[in-house]
Amino acid sequence: MADVIVIGGGFHGMSSALHLARRGLKVTLLEAQYCGRHASGVNAGGVRTSGRDIAEIPLALASREMWHRLPELVGDDCGFVPSGQLKVSETEAEFEVLRERVRLLQSLGFTHEELVDARQVRALVPAIAPHVTGAIWVRDDGHALPFRAVTAFRLAAERAGAVVHEETPVERIAHRAGRWHVQCAGGRSFSATHLVNAAGAWAGEFAAQAGDPVPVETGGLMLMITHRAPPFVNPVLGATGRALSFKQFANGTVLIGGGLRCPASLAQRHGEVDMPKLAASARTVTDLFPHLQPLGINRAWAGVEAFMPDNIPVIGPSRASPNLVHAFGFSAHGFELGPIGGRIVADLITEGRTTLPIAAFAVDRFSRHSPRREESGLLQPQEKELQ
C-alpha cells in the first residue's frame, strides 16, 4: 500500500517520486501515456536561471546547483552542458532594457546575470551578426537532454523503490476516510495517504476536483532541429526583442525554440505544429547568423504545456484538501526547476514546510482579495522562451 501517489510522469512528477522514495516513503506514480511524453520530454532542455520572474530566482539558483552535480544525485549527467546562456540585444533601446534588468537584480542581491557589451558578445560568439549591441551573460547556465533527464530520474526513483505505472490515465480523485482514492481508466484504482498533482496540462482538472480551481490554460509548444552545420556557437542563445532560444549540439545540429505556441488538445493529448510560426523563428536565427540561411530543417514537433496567467507555476499545498501538494503550470520554463521541484514537494510532504520561498506560487493566489503582484513590484516581465 502506497504512502504517496504522484499523478504525472513528467520531470517534476518523477523528481518528486525520487525525493520521496529516498526519504523512505512508498511511492506510486501514475502516467497517462509514457513518462516524459509532453512538456518534460519535448522541450528545448534549457538549464536557465536567466530572465526569470523574481519569485523564481531562489528556486532556479538552488536547482542549478543540483544540475552541476547530477551524477551524484541520479548517476547520470542527463546530457548537461554548462555552456552558459546569452540573451542578446539588437538595438540600443534593447540594451538599455537589459541594463535595467541587471540593475534591478543587483539591488535585490542577485549577481548571476552579467551585462556584457557588443565586443564581449563577439568574443563569446564570433559568428554573430554585427548589429548586436550587447547581452546578458549567465556563465553557469547551460542545456541538457530532456528525455534523458526524465529517464535518469525515473531509473533512480525505481531503484529507490518507487513504482511507475504508464498508460494509466487518472480520471477522478477523492479524499475519503483519511486517504486519497484515485480512479483510473479501465477501472483501475489506487489509494494513498498523500497525493502529488504534477499532471502538467491536465493538472487543472485535478486541482478543481480537490477544491482548488485555478485559471490554467493549455497550449502547445513547438521546436525544430536543423541539419548539421560546422560549429559556430557554444552558449545557448536568446533574444531580447523577439522570441528566440537556440543551441548547437556537438553533432552540429541546431535546436530552435523560443516559446513558440501552437494549438493543443487536452482530450487528444496532442499539439499541432504551426509551420508559419516556425518559419518566423527560423528567420530570427538567420538574422543573427546569416550564414545559416541555406541550412535545412530536419524535423519539427510539439508538446502540450500548462500556462498560468502570471507565467509562474503552482507549487505548494492544497488550500481545500488535506495531504495534497500541487506542482504544475510551469508555463514553458519548468525544466531547469525539475531537480529542486521534487525536493520541495518531498519537504512539504515529509516535514510540512520547505526552506525555499514558495508563497508566490500558492494555488489560491488568483482568488485572494489582495494586491496584484505587479503592483507590489515583484512581478517582472517573463522572458518568452522555451525552457
CATH topology grouping of the largest domain: FAD/NAD(P)-binding domain
Q: Judging from the principal axes of the Cα atoms, what is the shape? A: globular
Largest sheet: 8 strands, mixed
Estimate percent helicity: 25-40%
How many beta strands in the DSSP annotation? 20
For this structure, what is the CATH homologous superfamily of the largest domain?
FAD/NAD(P)-binding domain
Give an overview in words:
With 387 residues, the chain is an alpha+beta fold. It has two domains: 2-77 and 145-215 and 310-376, 3-Layer(bba) Sandwich (FAD/NAD(P)-binding domain), CATH 3.50.50; 85-140 and 218-307, D-Amino Acid Oxidase, subunit A, domain 2 (D-Amino Acid Oxidase, Chain A, domain 2, 2-Layer Sandwich). Helices cover 28% and strands 27% of the residues. The protein is built from eleven helices and 20 strands. It has helices at 11-22, 39-42, 57-67, 70-74, 92-107, 118-124, 146-159, 203-209, 275-288, 338-351, 373-376; strands at residues 2-7, 27-30, 46-47, 85-89, 114-117, 134-138, 142-143, 163-165, 170-176, 179-184, 189-197, 217-226, 236-239, 245-248, 254-262, 264-265, 270-271, 297-307, 314-317, 324-328. The strands form four sheets. Strands 1, 2, 8, 9, 10, 11, 19 and 20 form an eight-stranded mixed beta sheet that branches. Helix 1 (11-22) packs parallel to helix 7 (146-159) and helix 1 crosses helix 10.
